[in-house]
Structure formats: structure tokens, C-alpha cells
Design brief:
Radius of gyration: 21 Å
Structural class: mainly alpha
Oligomer: single chain
Strand content: under 5%
Number of strands: 0
Length: 445
């Protein structure tokens, strides 16, 4: 079967992450700020909220994956979720950013419930979206390109959120952020539903494999995941990738506001971080094809660490040079992310070769577990650290400023270094072509 994809399919696939990041971008860039400065929760309380809800949410992910693997409809096993879950996902994204006029205890319960349900719905639409990639093509280069378009969609969504959210909140709320945030989220949610429909309509499942055997338990399926060494390495790499993202984007608003003392530059920094991701995604296929996904990733991540170290010493120097280093460092990291998506898709091929099964839903749900846990711990780490130094936006202390600076530099450097460690242990790049030659001799329904 021909697994070359049209440009229309690749662009359409990328729109799925554009849709997701109208919500995910709001969560990573603004939800901590919204909860502490608008909603009125203490930073330490928010840290606990993030951690508990994401752990509970992540535990549910493998069951969503098994459900996807057992789904058989005229639309396939992943695409129906893109069509039907998008509506409740949009509704919950708006409800999460509403500040109800109730007691403090009631507001905390409301925050827990809405954030937890939003996370579950995010899994119910994002896990099948991720699992769709290896069902569209088995060609490694095509998967890298799909990962690139996905990365550009993710970045574009984050760029729009970063650049437009604060102006829209002010415009819709007339200075009242409690009004501006839910209206802004409504705009993003409606556009997201339309984009998910485009993905559903234009992206087809070419490889309809049976998934889990009827007599195989969820426990057995998860145990096989742990025996899939390439998947374990990519899952760990993804964990620290999202730990870095959760930490950096969680602290970036505070860093620019209180350390650089440039609150008016917050939209620019958030936008530049995501423009860099978009640029990295766009150039990734050209860099990764000659170097390989693994080796190319190790190279660009190592270079990004060097640039973050340089930023420490140039913080009080030229603002333009500092911005340039920040942009280049995030561009390099953006080159790696499409490779991560493609390597994850390759582990599905390895899983079929080793265990005789295609369980994309389970593979991607467990990956979702790692990414959610990483994002939650990263954001919680920032919140707890701020709570530990008694962060108060109305009475800022030197210890709070010092903690914000430490989080901004140590987090990205340490977590990126750990990513490199696990990528060094990922050995599938060289083995994948021979695996595909064996799998291509099989007949797919």
C-alpha cells in the first residue's frame, strides 16, 4: 500500500495540534498566572492542584488507549474521537477559565473538578490524534514530516495564544480579567472545534490493524510496553521534554516581569518562544534527514544547553542579544520535537515487529501519561518553589526574585541534559529500516 501522503493531509494533520494548543497554550502559559492573580488561589495550593489532578488524569490515559485500540467504526479507530470529543473539550476549556462567585472552598473544588475533567477530555482527543500518525503512514521520512507539521501547528497555536491572549482579555473584559479570560477562551475553543473537524475529514487511516488481542488484558499490554525499550527511552525523553516546558513556560511570565523588570515584554517573550518552536519545526526535516532523528536531536539539544548557560552571564547586557540567544535556544529545541514524535511512531512499528500487535492507542496513551506528568510536575515545581519563598504579587521579596531566576535557568538546562541521556540509549534509528522491510512483507487490511 502506498504510504506517501499529500501536502493536504500533512497540513491538515498539523491543524490538530494547532487546535489542541489553543487550550494547551493557555494552560501552560497562563493558567498558573490565572489561578494566582485572577482566580485568587495561593501558589502552593495551585501546585498541589496541578500535581493531584494531572496524576489522576494520567492514570486514566492507558484505559483511554485500550479503548481506542478496541474501537472499530466506519471512520476507523482514532478519527471518531476527533469528531465527537471536540465539542465537550471546547466547553470545558471555557468553564475552566470562569471565576465563580462562591466561597473560597467552593472555588477550590470547582478548580479541581474543571481542571481534572478538562485533562481527561484532552486525553480523549489528543491520544487518538497522536495515534493517528502511524496509521497514516509507515514511511519514516513521512512520519518526520508529519511530526514537523504537527510541531508547526503546535507552535502556531502557542504563538497566537501568547501574542493575542492579553490584548483579547483586556479588550473583552474592559480591564476585568475575570470577564476577559473566559470570553477569550470561547473564541479559541470555537476555532479549535472547526480545526479538529478538518483533521477528521482529511486525514485517513491507511493501516487498519487489529490492535489488542481479545484475550489480552490491559496489564499484559502495559507490561509489553515496558519491554519495548525504544518506547521506554522516548517516553522518558518526553517526560523531561515536558518537564522543561512546564517549568520554563510556568516561570517565564514571572521571570520577564520581576527579574528582567520588563512586564510589557511578556507577550513578546512568549511569542518568540513559540515562533522559535515553529521555525524549528519547519527546518527539522532538512536537518534531521542527513543526521538522523536521534543524532540530530542530541546535537541540537546540546547546543541549546550551551546557549542557556550563556544567557546567565548576559542577563544584564544587551536586551537584543539576550532575546536572540533565547530565540535560538528555543529554535534548536523546536528542531528536536518533531523527531520525538517520529521516533515515538517508529516505536509502534517496533512493537508490531516484536510482539505481533499494533497498539497505537496504548502506546500513545502511555506517552500521554509521561507528557502530562512532566507538564504537571514542571508547573507544580514552579508553584511550590514560589510558595516556599512566600511569593506575593503585592509584596515581592528578594528571595522570590532569586527563586524565579534559578527556575528559569536550572530547569531548562538540567531537564534538557537528562533528555540527551535517554536519547543516547535510544538505538532504534539504525534498526528501523530492517524492521520495516520485514513488516512490509505482511498484508494489512
Amino acid at each position: 500500500m502506498n504510504d506517501k501522503l499529500s501536502l493536504k493531509e500533512k497540513v491538515s494533520y498539523g491543524l490538530g495540534d494547532l487546535a489542541s494548543n489553543f487550550v494547551w497554550g493557555m494552560i501552560t502559559s497562563y493558567l498558573l498566572y490565572f489561578y494566582t492573580n485572577v482566580y485568587g488561589l495561593a501558589a502552593g495550593v495551585v501546585g498541589t492542584l496541578f500535581l493531584i489532578t494531572r496524576i489522576l488524569d494520567a492514570i486514566i490515559d492507558p484505559f483511554i488507549g485500550v479503548l481506542i485500540d478496541k474501537t472499530k467504526t466506519k471512520h476507523g479507530k482514532t478519527r471518531p474521537y476527533l469528531l465527537y470529543v471536540s465539542v465537550p473539550f471546547a466547553v470545558l476549556s471555557v468553564i475552566t477559565f470562569i471565576t465563580p462567585n462562591i466561597s473560597e472552598g467552593g472555588k477550590l473544588v470547582y478548580a479541581y473538578l474543571t481542571y481534572l475533567v478538562l485533562g481527561i477530555l484532552y486525553s480523549a482527543i489528543n491520544v487518538p490524534y497522536g495515534a493517528l500518525m502511524p496509521l497514516m503512514t509507515k514511511n519514516s521520512d513521512e512520519k518526520t514530516q508529519l511530526g514537523s507539521f504537527r510541531m508547526m501547528g503546535m507552535a502556531l497555536g502557542a504563538i497566537i495564544v501568547s501574542a493575542c491572549t492579553q490584548p483579547l482579555v483586556q479588550a473583552f473584559g474592559g480591564g476585568d480579567e475575570k470577564v476577559g479570560y473566559p470570553i477569550t477562551m470561547t473564541v479559541y475553543a470555537v476555532v479549535g472545534m472547526i480545526l479538529f473537524y478538518i483533521v477528521f475529514k482529511n486525514c485517513k487511516e491507511r493501516f487498519d490493524n487489529s490492535g489488542l488481542k481479545s484475550d489480552e488484558s490491559v496489564g499484559k499490554s502495559l507490561l509489553n510496553l515496558l519491554k519495548n525499550r525504544p518506547w521506554v527511552m522516548i517516553a522518558l525523553n518526553s517526560l523531561f521534554l515536558f518537564l522543561r516546558l512546564g517549568t520554563m513556560f510556568g516561570v517565564l511570565v514571572y521571570f520577564v516581569t520581576y527579574v528582567l523588570e520588563q512586564p510589557y515584554m511578556v507577550p513578546l517573550y512568549l511569542t518568540l518562544a513559540n515562533v522559535a518552536t515553529f521555525v524549528g519545526g519547519a527546518v527539522a526535516p532538512f536537518i534531521l534527514k542527513p543526521l538522523g532523528k536521534r543524532n540530530g536531536s542530541i546535537l541540537v539539544l546540546s547546543a541549546s544547553i550551551i546557549l542557556f548557560v550563556m544567557m546567565i552571564f548576559l542577563e544584564n547586557g544587551s536586551p537584543v542579544l539576550y532575546l536572540l540567544l533565547f530565540f535560538i535556544a528555543n529554535t534548536l529545541i523546536g528542531i528536536h520535537t518533531p523527531a520525538n514524535f517520529a521516533m515515538l511512531a517508529d516505536t509502534a512499528d517496533y512493537h508490531e515487529w516484536k510482539f505481533g500487535q499494533r497498539t497505537e492507542g496504548t502506546l500513545y496513551s502511555a506517552y500521554s501519561f509521561a507528557t502530562k506528568f512532566g507538564s504537571a510536575v514542571g508547573a507544580s515545581f514552579v508553584a511550590y518553589a514560589l510558595g516556599w519563598v512566600n511569593y506575593d504579587p503585592n509584596h515581592l521579596t528578594d528571595s522570590a526574585v532569586s527563586m524565579i531566576r534559578t527556575l528559569m535557568y536550572v530547569g531548562p538546562i538540567a531537564f534538557t541534559a537528562l533528555q540527551i541521556v535517554f536519547l543516547v540509549m535510544y538505538k532504534l534509528d539504525k534498526q528501523h529500516p530492517s524492521i520495516m522491510r520485514e513488516l512490509n512483507n505482511k498484508t494489512y487490511v
